[in-house]
Amino acid sequence: MGDESASFQLLPGASESPVILHVPHSSRVVPADVRRGIVLDDAALERELDHITDAHTAELAAAAAEAAPVVPWRFVNSLSRLVVDPERFPDEREEMAAVGMGAVYTRTTHREPLRRADADPRPLLERYFHPYAEAMTAAVADRLDAVGRAVVIDVHSYPTRPLPYELHGRGPRPPVCLGTDAFHTPPALLARAQEVFHGFGGTGLDSPFAGTYVPLAFYGKDPRVSALMIEIRRDVYMDEPGGRAGPGLAALAGALAELAGAL
Questions:
Q1: How many domains does one find in the chain?
Q2: Using H for helix, E for strand and C for coil, what is the string for 119-181?
Q3: Which of 5, 36, 42, 256 is the most buried (most CB within 10 A)?
Q4: Domain annotation covers residue 238
Q5: What are the pLDDT digits (tens) for 6-61?
Q6: Maximum pairwise Cα distance, the chain
Q7: Is residue 197 part of a domain?
Q8: Is 104 domain-assigned?
Q9: What is the pLDDT of residues 221-248, one digit of tens each?
């Protein structure tokens, strides 16, 4: 795969664990050659990274893995979502393309230009998006082969106040938003997550962000693959935007460890 392998990490867990903690949006790293295609100046790019990055979620997943009674696997994006967003559909199914935030963003969180409108997304898709998707597909397939099931827990955060790019920003913004899928989120998984995260001020469903990530090879096809998205409102654990983590991070890691262990 060449140097593209550095764009993500698969961190092994226990052989008997079906759980993969997926962390797609925690990094601020933008390779120099990708940076040249971004029209923001350096200061504006740093501000955009403050807004768009799910800061400290990789640390959250690492602490949860360390504390869990059965160590979950972790799949972590090493690059910023401004390079590619591995959780978008790469085609017309992606609703965020309407605001220039499909798999390769052309607009910022404030709907300002990020890349030239005529920028060709294909080189970035080929170099980063497709290898990432293939590796995540392989990671899920490995858990299916090893233990007969896979549980993808998608670890995200979101700002306390809506940003202009949000298509559904007028809905509830609970301390912990749980994103679900009718096919891949079984009631028992959802109920357990509601239980372990209740102490942070309550949970909500699919608002302001809905759905959860399943590799397309399994999406809507294989019921052995379960999935849940955990969106943590940033004021629960950090200074916004892009600031330091607070004591809430350790408590959240404990809850995530409890969820992973229960699965």
A1: 1
A2: CCCHHHHHHHHHHHHHHHHHHHHHHHHHHCCEEEEEEEEECCCCCCCCCCCCCCCCCEEEECC
A3: 256
A4: yes
A5: 799 999 999 999 999 999 999 999 999 999 999 999 999 999 999 999 999 999 99
A6: 50
A7: yes
A8: no
A9: 999 999 999 999 999 999 999 999 999 9
Structure tokens at 206: 């699919």
The two three-digit tokens of residue 157, written as one number: 């955060």
Domain coverage including residue 135: 2-36+54-83+128-262
pTM: 0.95
Q: Are residues 30 and 81 in contact, defined by beta-carbon separation less than 8 angstroms?
A: no
Q: Mark 142-176 as b/e (b = at least 16 C-beta within 10 Å).
A: ebbeebebbbbbbbbbbbeeebebbeebeeebbbb
CA pair distance 5, 128, nearest whole angstrom: 9
Residue where the block lists tokens 């399994």: 218
Residue found by looking up tokens 């019921």 in the block: 223
At 35, the amino acid letter reads R
